[in-house]
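Appendix B. Raw example, untouched.
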Amino acid sequence: MPKFALLRDRLLKDGVITPDQIYQPGEPPTGWLELVHDAAYVMAYRQGRLDAKVQRRIGLPWSPALVKRTCTAVGGTILTAKLALEYGLACNTAGGTHHAFPSYGSGFCIFNDLAIATRVLQSQQRARRVLILDLDVHQGDGTAWIFRDDPSVFTFSMHCAENFPARKQRSDLDIPLPTGLTDEAYLRCLARHLPDVLAQVRPDLVLYDAGVDPHRDDRLGKLAMTNTGLYERDRWVLDTCVQAGHPVACVIGGGYGNSMEDLIFRHSLLHRAAVDVFQRRRL
């Protein structure tokens, strides 16, 4: 998928970031993937031996290039989380594969980068309590299932109720939204819940899935947010977390537009908001 490189190029072209702010992740060791995923599934996917039905559920045709891209994106989220702990705020230009379960992928998601990054940081004793804040328009069902019995990880999913997946899992907090919700109502709903969650969980790290598929022009979204609303959402989330003393690692999540140029700009809003917060909070 070209959008990841195009997003990086757009951020550089617009002066949102500079080349020295780009960190290149490596592919994570297999053992890190297996902190979340079944060893047999990891091996079968990496070797291109998945059952045809399992492959169709992912929704992407297998190729060695896709394996590399998938693993690099996971490495990027792990690196982003470590940088967030060091600097207070960091953003990946990919990630947010929240539909992946331990033994299978789903909805264009193969390995669950949010869950893997959480387990890696916990295993390295870099973070104990983690909040996964998922504002993609689709419920983070894989993430919710993985951490369903784990009090050290709080899963918060605010998503369109009448959207994929048809069978929702139970997050620690689910906020189902009505079809067609616009900026003002969306932001009010988020503001009612996030500060209380932060006060309750007191996370060592927030993993923020900033999907842009709530946008009104998204092909798979069913909500009606604008670019302005998405930017205000991201800026408010980041500022609220940072002001309360919680480092934030961001991933771009989903986005499905007819115009690649418009989609890349929507994904860039997260990084523009992050720069604003980083500078104003003097991180």
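End of appendix B.
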